[in-house]
Write a structure and sequence with these properties.
Helix 3 links the parallel strand 4 and strand 5. This protein has 3 domains: 151 residues, Rossmann fold (3-Layer(aba) Sandwich), CATH 3.40.50.20; 58 residues; 147 residues, D-amino Acid Aminotransferase, Chain A, domain 1, CATH 3.30.470. It contains 12 helices and 16 strands. The longest helix has 20 residues. Strands 14-13-10-11-12-15-16 form a 7-stranded mixed beta sheet, sandwiched between helices. A 5-stranded parallel beta sheet has the order 3-2-1-4-5, with helices on both faces. By secondary structure, the chain is an alpha/beta fold. The two termini are 35 Å apart. Helix 2 packs across helix 3.
């Protein structure tokens, strides 16, 4: 296959996310022309020297028809050959490709597989269908389903079937705590057995079921209950074997991420799937090898970063208060010194400065809608079931 040239154009969506910035830098480093798109006015990645053009799109959650029109026109106008989603806009893009068939290749599975992987009950059932061990998980569609298991609540983890960032998770609640929510067939919950062990996260890319990139890490600090902000690479053969078997069994093409738990006996079980990019991407810095794995389906690439990765601004905002509450300020300072700033990149300093403007835009949205910063960061791209995907 000939080497990439500037005449090849890639569209990377979800430009607000650090993973979109990272992908842009990798593809730019491999000689691609990089177009970025998203709905905010000042996303982090738009400031990068890797970005040839930034295009602002309608919000897919609230204006799906206009979003589909804009994406289809953008792909045609810019001569895009490859589209890389990074966040939950992948579900809306899959609908665009299903209904409109743009000429570019969308690096993602079809809508049905995406939805099955994203739904926290359907994912566990999919694992079982593939012969993969998984924790006991019960679907809760109404108050009767909830009443049937309320007596075991202290041994369970409750969470919406469609959710992100561990939002609204109830960890081993008291039965009376369950009175606060009302599951429905349209917005079901799941109850999953609580498992002791170390939480791990995996990021992978696959082409037609072949695992071509894999990284595994643990999150030392988080923004709230869910999203990690400080990532330490780890190795575990059982985790890689699970991801490889899942990718092969589903014939997966695209990016693929998991929350896993390593139990005290060494076994690894899946908790949930994120069929999109996650922070494990930051452990890859070889542009040629990584882009060849995606664009050409060639070779296998391993992570080439060994030091912990973090966004220091997020670490100060979320990690420091957590350290102060727990009395672990010494560990916080040591971890701060021992990690690389993942926004740093040779000859591309602007995104690090641009994060303040991007944060200000998100903060203004949070204040306007009286929601958290984390919720504001994804409010316009969240996808909570197939009824949102029609274009």
């Amino acid at each position: 296959m000939p080497a990439s040239t500037p005449s090849q154009s890639v569209l990377i969506t979800g430009a607000r996310a650090p993973v979109a910035l990272h992908l842009a830098r990798l593809f730019h480093g491999a000689g691609w022309r990089v177009v970025l798109a998203d709905t905010p006015a000042f996303p982090l990645s738009a400031a990068s020297s890797a970005c040839t053009r930034y295009v602002r799109l309608p919000p897919p959650r609230f204006e799906p028809q206009a979003y589909g029109d804009a994406v289809a026109a953008l792909v045609k106008r810019e001569g895009i050959s490859l589209v890389l989603p990074t966040c939950e806009e992948v579900f809306y893009l899959a609908a665009v490709w299903r209904e409109r068939h743009p000429a570019a290749r969308l690096f993602a599975p079809d809508s049905d597989l995406l939805a099955r992987a994203h739904n926290k009950f359907d994912f566990i059932e999919l694992c079982k269908d593939l012969g993969l061990a998984a924790p006991q998980t019960t679907l809760i569609r109404d108050r009767a389903d909830l009443a049937a298991i309320s007596g075991s609540a202290s041994k369970l983890v409750f969470k919406p079937a469609w959710s992100r960032f561990a939002s609204r998770v109830l960890l081993r609640p008291r039965p009376e705590d369950l009175d606060a929510f009302a599951p429905t067939p349209q917005a079901p919950w799941v109850a999953q057995e609580f498992l002791e062990g170390e939480e791990l996260s995996a990021y992978a890319i696959a082409n037609e079921g072949r695992l071509q990139a894999f990284s595994l890490y643990r999150s030392v600090y988080r923004a709230g209950k869910g999203a990690g902000i400080y990532f330490v690479p780890v190795e575990n053969g059982a985790a890689k074997a699970f991801v490889s078997r899942f990718a092969a069994g589903t014939c997966w093409t695209g990016q693929l991420s998991f929350d896993l738990i390593r139990r005290p006996d060494g076994t690894v079980l899946p908790l949930e799937c994120n069929p999109r990019a996650t922070s494990g991407l930051h452990f890859f810095r070889n542009p040629q090898a990584f882009t060849a794995a995606i664009a050409a389906g060639e070779g296998a690439v391993g992570p080439d970063v060994v030091r912990p990765q973090t966004v220091r601004l997020a670490l100060w905002l979320y990690g420091l208060p957590a350290a102060l509450r727990s009395g672990a300020i010494g560990s916080f300072l040591r971890n701060l010194r021992g990690a690389d700033e993942l926004l740093d990149w040779p000859d591309d300093p602007a995104p690090k400065r641009a994060q303040w403007r991007a944060l200000s835009e998100i903060a203004a949205l949070a204040l306007r809608h009286r929601i958290s910063l984390q919720r504001a960061s994804t409010r316009d791209i969240e996808w909570d079931g197939p009824d949102q995907s029609s274009m």
